[in-house]
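Shipment paperwork, digital attachment
Item: protein structure file
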Amino acid sequence: MLKDVISANYKGGYKIEVTFEDGAKGIVDFSKYLCKGGIFEKFQDMAFFKDFKINEELGVLTWRDEIDIAPETLYAEATSSPLPDWVNFKEAPSANISLQPTS
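Attachment content:
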């Protein structure tokens, strides 16, 4: 079950304290997103990083409607709990990959 983010407070550096609808809260360190590249390179601009808000409709943190982090990921990181089982599914083979045995 997803837990929506209901409040978020900047704590310095790349840390944000998040509170969830079930009352759980904790600090998420977003510095690890810097090495992911792609859209997360925008976090290198601290002014951009600090400009987050809660999308109340989705219950997620967003940055200028360009980046959002799934609530189940935030919950797991903030509370040091595992991700739900459904998040850890094995990726299905691509439709372009032959499933025929090779000789």
